[in-house]
Design a protein that fits this description.
alpha+beta, eight-stranded antiparallel β-sheet, flat
Amino acid sequence: MAALTNKIDFALVISVRNANPNGDPLDGNRPRTTFDGRGEISDVCLKRKIRNRLLDMGQPIFVQSDDKRVDPYRSLKDRADSVPELVRLKKDKDSEGYAKKACEIWFDVRAFGQVFAFSKGDDASGTSIPVRGPVTIQSAFSVDPVEITSLQITKSVNLETNKTNPDKKTPDTMGMKHRVDKGIYVTFGSINVQLAEKTGFSDEDAEVLKEAMRTLFVNDASSARPEGSMEVLKLVWWKHNCKNGQYSSARVHRSLHVDSEGNITLTELPGLEAIVIDGV
């Protein structure tokens, strides 16, 4: 497939109701917030969700999480070493060939990039192969400050049987559960043509990525994010007519205005059409 030919900018408008969209492990897993109280979903969290969605769509993904893993490999090294061609290229210390082959195999490598680091025991010890991906995505921030509700919960589950008195329950475990009551989050991203040419990211790949983002929260439900509590309201897609783009990404992203109810308005940029797609 031919590499991407035109620069692309995009934006996602996300609705959150009674869910924890991205817990902060340094703050008791409370929803992430900025200093001014706006909700935040990290770019790493968003890329994890995109990867999971791409896996559901049948795309080969290199960085898989344990709960979504579709192969027997528990580490990135084992997954990479399962490809004989990559093992040969590593032994030959052919960094360029290794990166090219990895991009051909895995969608997320040619989209987001990856660093393949080799330990001292590897034939290519002391080296790492960086791949810069063309797809970048920013953290999502809420339009307005969010209100967080915290609940104290207990778990009444016997984790271990009392051998002297099997009928005796173990003490209940106390914990906390947090949620954002309501919030509209917005994130922006871009696809760089020059980097797409290096990784082989194509126009067809861009369409697959678009569908993954439009359906981002399908099969993403959990205790922290009950089914229906998170929704992609709109995906805004700008496709430029040249490699470098008619306008800077910053100016394109500023042309989108989102209110506290998720309604959007767009400032016209002559010659650049914004395609607005309903999410799922």
